[in-house]
Specification:
alpha/beta; four-stranded mixed beta sheet; 16% strand
Length: 295
């Protein structure tokens, strides 16, 4: 379908560079890197600032990276417009977990409760979540371990490489399949948690039945008003300017102000004028704050 939409050789990653990255619209969702058919040859590269570059000589010019980017207007024939500003919904409510092990987490622990329910009731084989290190560096994890899923609770407010977890499925072996209780890779059932831009990229991948996005059976989208590069928010602002050691942070939240709670109980609050200028430039282009492409 994608190949039919573009003339052969017409679309390369240069189109993404020009229209999205160089224009300051990139969300750093990682979708282009995950979908690249030639990932093993590093056609699409990332440097320390997560700005992607491109190996034009080895590019297949398939157009997949451009097609699934949440900042391009390309859509497949399966795409559809939402009827309202927050997407389709059956009802709206507020909920809080009833699990004691999640009662102290951010915003009620609902997302983590949903993942545990899906896992406990054999509706999924694994969850694609984001974990954080002691330095609050996010990393993607494809897991069916309850403790890891519980550890993923709480917002990190740094760009999450969640699609790297999907990329790992290209290299999965029989022993890993056995761990996930799946007989074949095509039978693997995954629940993914992500931001609106990541859900938009995932939806485009699913519309063309792209592997491994077609294995994601449940999409749990998060609300998002802005996101931040780790170096800008955590290293420069919190560590260097506010002098808060990153391992000392217990939780973070944005409720009008950015609230940083340390393990000692000390709380630091940043006003909008202090933290919003730190947001990624690409976030200012986003019109989806509620993950309209999730379940």
């Amino acid at each position: 379908m994608i190949q039919q939409a573009f003339k052969k050789g017409e679309v390369t990653f240069n189109k993404v560079l020009k229209e999205v990255i160089d224009a300051g619209r990139c969300t750093n969702c990682g979708g282009c890197d995950a979908i690249c058919l030639l990932d093993a040859t590093d056609v699409i590269k990332k440097d320390e600032s997560n700005i992607r570059s491109h190996d034009e000589e080895n590019c297949e010019k398939c157009g997949l990276c451009y097609a699934i980017c949440p900042r391009t207007n390309f859509s497949t024939s399966l795409g559809k417009e939402q009827d309202n500003i927050i997407g389709g919904f059956k009802s709206i409510g507020t909920y809080q977990t009833s699990l004691d092990e999640l009662s102290h987490f951010q915003d009620g622990g609902l997302v983590t409760s949903l993942l545990l329910y899906l896992l406990d009731n054999n509706l999924i084989d694994a969850a694609l979540v984001t974990l954080k290190s002691g330095q609050w560096i996010p990393r993607a994890a494809l897991t069916n371990d309850r403790n890891e899923i519980i550890r993923s609770a709480g917002t990190i407010y740094a760009t999450s490489p969640v699609f790297e977890g999907l990329k790992l499925l290209n290299e999965i072996d029989d022993s890993q399949l056995e761990k996930f209780r799946a007989r074949t890779i095509d039978s693997l059932r995954i629940a993914m948690v992500g931001l609106p831009c990541q859900m938009a990229a995932l939806q485009k991948m699913r519309e063309i039945n792209a592997f491994p996005a077609n294995l994601v059976k449940y999409r749990i989208g998060l609300f998002c008003f802005e996101n931040f590069d780790h170096d800008v928010l955590f290293k420069k602002k919190i560590l260097e300017e506010l002098k808060i050691p990153l391992p000392n942070i217990q939780s973070m939240n944005i409720k009008g102000k950015m609230i940083i709670k340390q393990k000692t109980g000390e709380i630091t609050k940043l006003g909008k004028s202090e933290f919003q200028p730190l947001a990624r430039e690409g976030c200012h282009w986003c019109g989806d704050l509620t993950s309209m492409d999730c379940d």
